[in-house]
């Protein structure tokens, strides 16, 4: 089993922890990780763009001028695409960009992302991340002690003060074990997780 050091919020090493190889020690599948990132970004797209075609623009029912004899090019409608105020030729319409991954694919991608962070020594386990009060200053100090700047903080469900203390820090995001995703794990330089959160991850994804 992979073994990582455990730190307190002062940045001091207080022990070590063995990680489950079924989650943190698998062979990294880069292809499935790429698919998960693409799916995540695609699923965030709203797909609500819309422009009117010549058939949807109001007006233009009458022929602007007669077919011959005016010296102008023939025109059938003032709502043709070449006219100001006319329709768009290949107008975008609302669509669904979402990409579906199977449950096994999603889990494999997540495990691969977590394993890559452990392999790169960018997975830090903190003994206890609970805070007595909501204080951004204390959270900044804790991250400084851990020598972390851009980080994904994974906390257990009941650590509300920790979440609220970190929400205004630039480059820091919090997540619970049930809401972590491949994109965030790879986006932030370091994953900082409490021991309780690591245990929950191993229970949920094992």
UniProtKB/TrEMBL annotation:
Any single GO BP term: translation
A molecular function GO annotation: rRNA binding
Annotated keywords: Ribonucleoprotein, Ribosomal protein, RNA-binding, rRNA-binding
Compositionally biased intervals (Basic residues): 60-71
Region listing for Disordered, in residue ranges: 44-85
Pfam families: Ribosomal_L4
GO cellular component: ribonucleoprotein complex; ribosome
Complex and partners: Part of the 50S ribosomal subunit.
Function, as annotated: One of the primary rRNA binding proteins, this protein initially binds near the 5'-end of the 23S rRNA. It is important during the early stages of 50S assembly. It makes multiple contacts with different domains of the 23S rRNA in the assembled 50S subunit and ribosome.
Protein family (similarity comment): Belongs to the universal ribosomal protein uL4 family.
Xref: PANTHER family: 50S RIBOSOMAL PROTEIN L4 (PTHR10746), LARGE RIBOSOMAL SUBUNIT PROTEIN UL4M (PTHR10746:SF6)
Name of the protein described by the UniProt record: Large ribosomal subunit protein uL4
Organism encoding this protein: Johnsonella ignava ATCC 51276
């Amino acid at each position: 089993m992979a073994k990582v050091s455990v730190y307190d919020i002062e940045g001091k090493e207080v022990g070590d922890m063995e990680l489950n190889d079924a989650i943190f020690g698998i062979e990294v599948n880069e292809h499935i990780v790429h698919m998960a990132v693409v799916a995540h970004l695609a699923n965030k797209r709203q797909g609500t763009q819309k422009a009117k075609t010549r058939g949807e623009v109001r007006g233009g029912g009458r022929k602007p001028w007669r077919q011959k004899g005016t010296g102008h090019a023939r025109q059938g409608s003032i709502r043709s695409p070449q006219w100001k105020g006319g329709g768009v030729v290949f107008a975008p319409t609302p669509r669904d960009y979402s990409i579906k991954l199977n449950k096994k694919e999603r889990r494999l991608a997540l495990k691969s992302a977590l394993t890559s962070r452990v392999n790169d020594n960018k997975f830090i386990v903190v003994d206890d991340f609970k805070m007595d009060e909501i204080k951004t200053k204390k959270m900044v100090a804790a991250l400084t002690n851990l020598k972390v700047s851009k980080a994904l903080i994974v906390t257990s469900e009941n650590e509300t003060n920790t979440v609220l203390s970190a929400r205004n820090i630039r480059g820091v995001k919090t997540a619970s074990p049930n809401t972590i995703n491949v994109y965030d794990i790879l986006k932030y330089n370091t994953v900082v997780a409490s021991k309780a959160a690591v245990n929950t991850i191993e229970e949920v994804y094992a």
